[in-house]
Amino acid sequence: MVSVGTIVWLSSELMFFAALFASYYTIRAVSPELWAQSTAGLDVPYAATNTTILVLSSVTCQAGVFAAERGQVGRSGPLWRFWGGSWGLREWFVLTYFMGAIFVAGQAFEYVTLVHEGITIPASSYGTMFYLTTGFHGIHVTGGLIAFLLVLGRTFLARKFTHEQAVSAIVVSYYWHFVDVVWIGLFATIYLIK
């Protein structure tokens, strides 16, 4: 039931982001000159690196889910040996958490840079749509980071790793993969499509 409920909730989130995409493209169509001028200030290689970190975090998240499905909450070997099923849910989710935190910090750094270049919310419709779309995504990533902390906390508080804990890890992975896919769409829309 939890998985089905999460998928239904993510469907509503998909509609929310669809509205943001529609707004972005609508305002872009009205003032293409502003978009051409404003997108010139974007650092595409920096954003691509940040995107790669987020996409790779989806891989580490899924590795954590595989460990949870095996019932392996912690590592079974040395910390440096992560391949071959040695790492458990905790190690993979901690790595995913750090990668997500790096993404959010990278996005915040990009905001500071763009504000110094004069791209702000009140300055233009481009700034409004840029910060609205990427900001809401950043809030969702932060929500995912909190969810990782909750799952990790449960693994330390529980006496025994149960099926319910594995389900919570799986549900958090659904959310994390959703956030990653949305970002891929945002990255293509904002940084690549000229």
UniProtKB/TrEMBL annotation:
Example of a GO cellular component annotation carried by this entry:
plasma membrane
PROSITE patterns found in the cross-reference section: COX3
Major localization listed first in the record, in broad terms: membrane
- Name the InterPro entries for this protein: Cyt_c/ubiquinol_Oxase_su3, Cyt_c_oxidase-like_su3, Cyt_c_oxidase_su3-like_sf, Cyt_c_oxidase_su3_a-hlx
Keyword set includes Membrane? yes
- What sections of the sequence does the record tag as coiled-coil? none
What topology does it adopt in the membrane? Answer: Multi-pass membrane protein
Give its E.C. classification number: 7.1.1.9
**Which EC main class describes this enzyme?**
translocase
Q: What compartments host this protein?
A: Cell membrane
Give the UniProt family note: Belongs to the cytochrome c oxidase subunit 3 family.
User: In its UniProt entry, what is this protein called?
Assistant: cytochrome-c oxidase
Q: Which organism is it from?
A: Nocardioides mangrovicus
